[in-house]
Amino acid sequence: METLPSSEMPTTTKPSPPPFSLPSLFQLNPFWAQLVYFLFLPISGFLLLKCLPAKTAPKPKDLELLFMSVSASTVTGLNAVEMESFSESQLFVFILIMLLGGEVFTSLLGLWFFKIRKNKRRRTNLLQNSVRNLGFIVLGYLIAVHAGGFAFLRVYLAVFPASLRILNRKKLQPSVFAVFAVVSSFANCGLLPTNEGMVVFRESSGMLLAIAAVIAMGNTLYPCFLRLAVMGLKAMGCSPALEYLLRDEKEVGFGVLFPSRRTAMLAATAASMVAAQFVVFCCMEWWSDGMAGMSSFRKAVAALFMAVNSRHSGESVFDISSAAPAVLVLFVVMMYLPAHTTFYPFKEASKCSKSVEEHHQEEKKSKHYCYFKHVMFSQISCLAVFVMIICLTEKQQLSDDPLNFNVFNIIIEVISGYGNVGFSTGYSCSRQLKPVGFCKDSWISFSGRWSAKGKLALMAVMLYGRLKNFTMGAAKAWKLH
């Protein structure tokens, strides 16, 4: 590209945006932009939930509403309030913040603000067109999965009246349930408008399989379906620029558009993990009380549903507190692993398409952030610190109620919050060794019974987990050999 001589350059300069304007926010490092985004989103959700009327009285406390808003916006799914306590207008607030906090939607925002805007300034027309087309593909993918999932659930509820009777008994509109379930599942949040979650639908095998597919398409297998969508559109001859997306993924720089070989290995890895969990769960729980009275086919579908949800969604058809310890340990490992964990025994070709000057500019811009990332604790160390903090905040209950409040249950809750999963052992009044006052069982997470300080600590874990991609290479300054 030719540049104008200095004498022909325009004399007027474009005024810089105000320090707190939206454009200036997204010119920051992506980490700081996402941090601001995931602080603004739950606060906005909390204010809306607080202003809108609740379905039941008394209205949940402010801290509980904030906890629910953080849980929904970080797509964690742990709840401190029974979901049937919320009015229909509050349910739509949850739908909105789950949609805005989901992986696909936030990746679309990142693609627009950090790729398309940047490409307009300094990249070739081919790349600019390719990235713009990719943005439309992601948007179309987002709309198509939601529309298809909603249509399927509405038809399913109309064809199978047993599931519809459950919603009628709970005074839930089928359309509201279908929208909520699809948005929550695609965002991998795990919240549902029923108190029991999917437990009441454990024999609705068709619904479980459909929701499991939506869950996988929204997170773990999102890169696989995205690449398939690009390949399909290219085969249809929709745009010549799509060839560039499939050939130069690193140049495009979209984090979930993987090379073909890694995409295949991701699908194989995810399938292997689900299969391993399915086998272990069936071996340990096939004859358990939770599966009593179910046919073999429904047991298999329920076990598959649990295996899919243990990665990042957290919807459950069983009380996991009654699961075998080996199953719980396996779930903890799966919740800890990032969504796109891949067994990849190949060397990736190192291809650097940026100029030396661009590298120097980026290094200079993010020098302080990189240094902070270099010296900070590793993820597992941070989780250990959070577990210790929560053990201190819940010290009295650990002593008085050891069957509910034990370190293993706290670790499960913390790892679930960090992985933005939502699996929880819950709380049972029958497990109290020293019954104190009136105790009523409720369909809330174990953390819903924690103190205010414990809830605040877990909210920090959820936020940390939602931003964990930025800390993958942390603690490089620590030498353990």
Explain this structure to me?
- One of its GO terms (cellular component) is plasma membrane.
- This is Putative cation transporter HKT6.
- The chain has helices at 22-26, 30-51, 62-73, 88-101, 103-122, 125-159, 161-169, 174-186, 205-218, 222-235, 242-247, 249-252, 260-285, 296-312, 325-336, 356-365, 367-375, 379-393, 395-400, 407-418, 452-466.
- With 481 residues, the chain is mainly α.
- Among the domains are: 104-274, no CATH class; 275-336; 379-471, no CATH class.
- It is globular, with a radius of gyration of 24 Å.
Entry summary:
The protein has 481 residues and is an all-alpha fold. The chain is built from 21 helices and no strands.
List keywords for this structure.
transport, 21 helices, disordered N terminus, ion transport, Putative cation transporter HKT6, Cat_transpt, about 60% helix, mainly alpha, transmembrane, about 475 residues
